[in-house]
Design brief:
The chain is α/β, with parallel strands linked by helices. It is built from 18 helices and 24 strands. Helix content is 29%, strand content 18%. Strand 3, helix 4 and strand 4 (94-97) form a beta-alpha-beta unit.
């Protein structure tokens, strides 16, 4: 049925609406809900793995009384707070923060009919304390080993879930493709069922012989609605070649446009006039974006660079540098060297990197390890394993280009739950932070001033369970603080902090930090160490034994420069109509 009919038939004020990420969400459903309820006060509870891009629309219109997520802000090109959530927070709207794996586990428990899911995350964090105060997290004694505590998160069961897929049929069969991100736990947990949007409706015959493509039982599907480009500006990626299934890439400029939409009243008014105030918001949206622009996104899915094919050795990279080597570049190089050293010394087989500079450092480290003959996988928590880390990969870790070039595609449950947080993980975590303190605790949620940040994403899960963490943080008294205001991620596994000035290291959570690998600067070593002390508020810091590191080599500079070369089009002026 048409999406507007499905919304009118099934969605009521006060419901808990869940927008599933599999890996993209139904942004067409976000717009349809906004269109139907824009003049009302429906007081929805709204859940999603991340509130970014199109999902800003519901907070802009104040359609929710509670927002449940692992991330609030903008994730492209790097994670940044968005002022809309600070305004919501100031107005008393409830923002319920989760970590990515605990959130997915809670949806899974909801689908399985269990009251709780077991989690190794959240303990020892402010994030866990807040969820505990809401009755969503509890630690109990292990009945077989009373000295050990077991973490439990309460099951999440939305009223209705929205899912987007590449294709489906009129009987409610949904064609799914990895990476699945959170998977279909939210859809299976939803009390009333799931509304599915698809880019195209196909004949049932198109699915014959591929039962592995069908992840949802049709009887759970309330409605299946054909919505071309229904995930835009996110991609719709289909991993298995099929002549009738069309994919499309990320629209990076529209990611940025949605950030501006939260503060630019004139831009939002233009969007509202063309999309929300018309009878057919789906057609209106495609006109707003521009049909030529939408069609132009199709050929770029999974394209690989013709210059640097997968597996190009580091020594062969000849991408010229512009000569400038920034403080961020120095931090990335020092982080990559630290990652390389820890992988070689401890035999780690996988690296789970966060978004932004930590991801760039992980990609560079993999190239440097490859040059040494050391094999390691770089993973993305949404379900990508052994992604392409050379120049044909994309610097935005969630880009469809990285899906297309990953060796394995699975889900959050597999990559984050098992390979990163599982009993036999051999994973090194690499994380950024707004603040980090002398205990290694990371804050990415809220500053002492009250300023809202972005939240955990998967960082709490990574820091809670992987073997070791390398943090990538600028050397500043505003970033290296005596004590973080909010513990998003516990610091027990954070043993190294790479900055642009040096690398801070400790042997265990109980030991003091030492400064080493001091990046060469236009001063003496004593002056450099004094500057590090002045910019670090840790009470236990020994900088007396610090030594100069080598400046970035030609190979490191070339490799780092090459990672910033993408197949994406150059940014241009964005106007309604494309």
């Amino acid at each position: 049925m048409p999406l507007s009919v499905a919304i009118a038939r099934y969605v009521r004020p006060g419901m808990h609406l869940h927008f599933a990420s599999s890996p993209s969400r139904s942004n067409a459903a976000v717009r349809a809900v906004a269109h139907a309820f824009r003049r009302l006060d429906p007081e929805f509870a709204v859940s999603a793995t991340g509130f970014h891009s199109t999902l800003h629309l519901l907070p802009i219109l104040r359609l929710g009384k509670r927002y449940i997520s692992c991330f609030f802000g903008d994730n492209y090109p790097t994670p940044r707070p968005n002022p809309i959530y600070e305004r919501l927070d100031a107005d008393g709207v409830e923002l319920e923060h989760w970590s990515l794996w605990s959130y997915t586990s809670a949806l899974r428990a909801g689908a399985l009919g269990q009251a709780y899911a077991v989690t190794n995350s959240l303990s020892g964090s402010t994030l866990g304390e807040e969820l505990a105060s809401r009755g969503k997290f509890i630690e109990v004694a292990d009945p077989l080993r009373p000295e050990r505590k077991i973490g439990l998160v309460a099951a999440l069961r939305p009223t209705i879930a929205f899912v987007h897929a590449a294709a489906g049929d009129r009987e409610g069969n949904v064609l799914a493709s990895p990476p699945y991100s959170e998977g279909y736990w939210g859809a299976l947990a939803a009390e009333c069922g799931v509304i599915v949007t698809v880019d195209q409706l196909l004949d049932r015959a198109a699915f014959r012989g591929r039962p592995d493509w069908l992840k949802l039982p049709p009887y759970r599907v309330l409605a299946i609605c054909e919505e071309p480009f229904g995930a835009h500006p996110q991609p719709s990626y289909f991993a298995s070649p099929h002549p009738e299934v069309l994919s499309y890439s990320d629209d990076f400029e529209h990611y940025e446009m949605w950030r501006r939409m939260t503060t630019d009243a004139q831009l939002f008014a233009s969007f509202s006039r063309q999309v929300l105030e018309v009878n057919d918001p789906s057609s209106g949206y495609r006109e707003f974006v521009g049909r030529r622009r939408l069609e132009s996104l199709r050929p770029r899915v999974g394209q690989r660079s013709s210059i640097f094919p997968r597996g190009t050795p580091v020594a062969a990279l000849e991408t010229p540098s512009n000569g400038a080597f920034s403080s961020t570049d120095r931090m990335i190089v020092l982080a990559a060297r630290t990652i390389v050293r820890r992988v070689v010394e401890h035999g780690y087989r996988a690296i789970l990197a966060g978004i932004g500079t930590s991801f760039t450092a992980a990609r560079l480290a993999k190239l440097l390890l490859k040059a040494q003959g050391v094999t390691v996988e770089v993973m993305v928590e949404t379900g990508m394993s052994d992604i392409e880390c050379g120049p044909s990969g994309h610097p935005f870790l969630l880009a469809s280009n990285n899906m297309a070039q990953a060796t394995r595609l699975s889900s959050i449950e597999d990559v984050l739950g098992t390979l990163t947080c599982g009993a036999h993980n051999r994973c090194l975590g690499v994380l950024g932070a707004a603040e980090i303190d002398g205990e290694g605790n990371i804050n990415s949620t809220r500053l002492a001033s009250g300023e809202l940040l972005v939240g955990s994403g998967g960082a709490n899960d990574i820091a809670s369970s992987c073997r070791e963490v390398v943090a990538v943080v600028p050397c500043s008294p505003l970033r290296l603080v005596e004590r973080v205001h909010y513990v998003t991620s516990p610091g027990k596994s954070v043993l190294h902090i790479a900055t642009e000035r040096c690398v801070l290291s400790r042997g265990s959570a109980n030991e003091s930090w030492t400064a080493g690998d001091v990046y060469p600067a236009n001063n003496t070593l004593t002056e450099a160490l004094d500057s590090i002390r002045a910019n670090c508020r840790f009470s236990r810091l020994d900088a007396t034994g610090g030594r100069w590191a080598e400046s970035a080599s030609r190979v490191e500079r070339q490799a780092l420069a090459s990672l910033r070369t993408t197949d994406a089009p150059a940014p241009g002026a964005l106007v309604a109509g494309g």
